[in-house]
Amino acid sequence: MFPVRTVALMLAVFAGTAFGQNTSPDKNPEPQKAATPRETATPAQPQTKVLVPESDAATANSAADSNDPLLSVPPLPKGKTTLLGGQVRNIDQIRNHMDVDSFGGGHMRVNFDERTHFFRDGVETTQLAVHKGDRVYVDTMLDKTRVLARNVRVNTGVTAASAAGQISRFDPKSGTLTLRDQIAARPVIFSIDQSTALVADKNSGASTVTRNDLRPGAIVAVNFAPSGNRGLAKQVTVLALPGTVFTFVGRVTNLDMRGALAVDNQSDQKNYEIRFDPAQVHPSRSMVVGSNVVVKAEFDGRNYNAQSIEVQ
């Protein structure tokens, strides 16, 4: 065992020797290695995160249609379409309506919206293609309290257009044919000359047609081209003549046992309103809405009057 003083002295000598070795100018310390990119601390970059609620995220990723029914375009109104031909007096592209001077006299305000189709010489376009002074032929429908344009055709005379209606007057001498406009209660006038073709529709009940058949009450389709202030008829097709008996086969869509029914006719896919006299025509009591019927009815120029009704 060493004395305490001896141990303390040895520790002091050892410490001095070690200090001398570490601080000796003859012993240069090894250069420190450069820090590698992994060892270099990278300062944190600010990040922005958008937090989406789970309900919104599910809606955004859902395949279901999210159209707002309040913003969707409503369907076209049901009902018949009536032709209006005339010249555009003015058009308001902001309020979406135009005033048309009818070829038969007077004028009408016609509204249009996203449901309206516009054509110029047979090529579909937009409402911006309609200008003041243009000659137009408009398929009009009654939309609640206003007249809505389903189709607007601007015709510059290059191509022909077509119309359908009921003859209210025909003057053989002047060749003036007047069709009844049901919505506006104003006529649409066409000119007929020697070049106009007269054709009988296969369902009209007539084999041939002459000018004598163009009498009030007849329902016709007219293919025409603008000429002056009226349309020049290229072809007139007679669809129904007063006194003709028609056979309707189809499903009853409306029924009033007091004397009226409506039938979806299978042959032309049209719906017809037919009147009957309960005292003369005795329909079966089994006839209800949805029944399939065969109805023979005479066209009198205004209505179809049933002669017989058979429930299939």
- β-strand percent reads 35-45%
Give the beta-strand count: 18
Mass-distribution shape: globular
Number of helices: 2
| Overall average residue pLDDT | 78
Please state how the strands of the largest beta sheet are arranged side by side: 3-2-1-6-7-4-5
Proportion of helical residues: under 10%
H-E order? HHEEEEEEEEEEEEEEEEEE
Radius of gyration: 44 Å
The low-confidence runs, each spanning 5 or more residues with pLDDT under 50, are: 17-27, 50-66
Q: Which structural class should the secondary elements be placed in? A: mainly beta
Structural write-up:
The structure is a single chain. The chain is 9% helix and 42% strand. The chain has helices at 4-22, 54-61; strands at 82-92, 97-102, 107-111, 117-120, 123-125, 135-143, 146-154, 161-171, 176-179, 188-191, 197-200, 219-227, 230-240, 245-256, 260-265, 270-275, 292-299, 304-311.
Tag the structure with descriptive keywords:
42% strand, globular, 2 helices, mainly beta, 5-stranded mixed barrel, 312 residues
Summarize the structure.
The protein is 9% helix and 42% strand.
Helices, strands, pairings?
Blueprint: H1 4-22, H2 54-61, E1 82-92, E2 97-102, E3 107-111, E4 117-120, E5 123-125, E6 135-143, E7 146-154, E8 161-171, E9 176-179, E10 188-191, E11 197-200, E12 219-227, E13 230-240, E14 245-256, E15 260-265, E16 270-275, E17 292-299, E18 304-311
Parallel strand pairs: 4-7, 10-13, 11-13, 16-18
Antiparallel strand pairs: 1-2, 1-6, 2-3, 4-5, 6-7, 8-9, 8-12, 9-10, 12-13, 14-15, 14-17, 15-16, 17-18
